[in-house]
Design goal:
By secondary structure, this protein is an alpha/beta fold. It has 2 domains: 66 residues, no CATH class; 202 residues, Rossmann fold. The chain has a 7-stranded mixed sheet, with helices on both faces. Strand 3, helix 9 and strand 4 form a beta-alpha-beta unit. The longest helix is centred in the first third of the chain and has 23 residues. The protein starts with a helix and ends in an 8-residue tail after the last strand.
Length: 303
């Protein structure tokens, strides 16, 4: 997915909100935001780079600049810890209702829970969110589902090798439920988290806190701190898992923005909430909708 004019506004707005949380020093804030603006301008005009107009790539550039200028290795550390705490509490309250389901319906409810968790995102322009909203998102997950390819996913993963690309901390707690369901229907599941801190994306520390290692067959990192998935930055270990996957489950808008730009060797299923207008319009659904969308092997989206 290519950036739209409003994406540039969002990129800068997110930069300011982030540095505002990190420091009370006005000069430091100005230095960081100025550096972000300069870096984004440089990258947008770097026409030789294949992803210079992809929002997730530009967001990665922004986050690297902020960490360097402000001098904080993990700017969202406290937010991620609180997100995991809230999600674990919510999951304990909904676990019983999941146990009452079976077969495809249990699988579908796990998909809805995983998608509902994708509401956990901070500073997106036009996406007002508080951690207290997670419970309501879970309750409304079915009503707000606007694309439902869960049955296709259910059939595709049986006995398959699945690569599961996580998105955010907190959300990864709900992902454990879907990974467990993937295992129940005979899939071998490798879960991938980010190789380093970037925004509130899940890292190996979050995977361990969510106890993903007790559910998945394997937990790896992408080998990079990129938002979304950019294969040229990924580790050889991750690329091996990517190449042998029969099905990829990709969570969140960053993965959608980046992965729709290239062809993949297998079907990709995007599980996300459309938290911004450009992503919603690209998919062709309302903003604030829940999506389980199949992208067939070898296809790209033009938007």
């Amino acid at each position: 997915m290519k950036i739209k004019p409003i994406c540039i506004v969002c990129l800068i707005s997110r930069a300011y909100k982030e540095v505002e949380r990190l420091t009370g020093d006005v000069d430091a804030r100005m230095k960081a935001v100025k550096a972000v603006v300069e870096a984004i301008n440089r990258e947008i005009n770097h026409e030789d780079h294949p992803f210079h107009l992809v929002p997730a790539y530009l967001g990665t550039v922004r986050e690297r600049v902020i960490r360097e200028v402000i001098g904080v290795d993990d700017p969202f550390a406290k937010i991620k810890a609180e997100s995991n705490r809230v999600a674990l509490n919510v999951l304990s309250n909904v676990s019983k209702s999941l146990k009452d389901k079976d077969g495809f319906e249990k699988f579908r409810q796990a998909c809805l829970l995983a998608v509902a968790g994708n509401i956990i995102e901070f500073d997106v322009l036009g996406h007002e969110f508080r951690l207290e909203d997670v419970t309501e998102a879970v309750v409304k997950a079915e009503d707000e589902l606007v694309i439902d390819d869960t049955e296709k996913l259910y059939k595709a993963v049986k006995g398959s090798s699945v690569l599961y690309l996580t998105d955010n901390a907190g959300e990864i707690v709900f992902d454990t439920v879907l990974v467990r369901e993937l295992k129940r229907v005979g899939a071998r599941v490798t879960v991938a988290v980010k190789g380093g801190p970037v925004m509130n994306d899940a890292t190996m520390a979050d995977a361990l806190e969510a106890e993903m290692h007790k559910v998945a067959d394997n937990v790896v990192t992408t080998g990079t701190d990129c938002i979304g998935l950019f294969l040229h930055e990924c580790s050889s270990e991750f690329l091996e898992e990517y190449q042998k996957a029969d099905v990829i489950v990709a969570k969140g808008m960053g993965n959608f923005e980046s992965m729709t730009e290239v062809e993949h060797p297998c079907d990709v299923y995007f599980l996300l909430r459309t938290k911004c207008t450009p992503v919603a319009e690209c998919i062709g659904v309302p903003k604030g909708g829940n999506v389980v969308l199949r992208l067939p092997k070898g296809e790209k989206l033009k938007c």
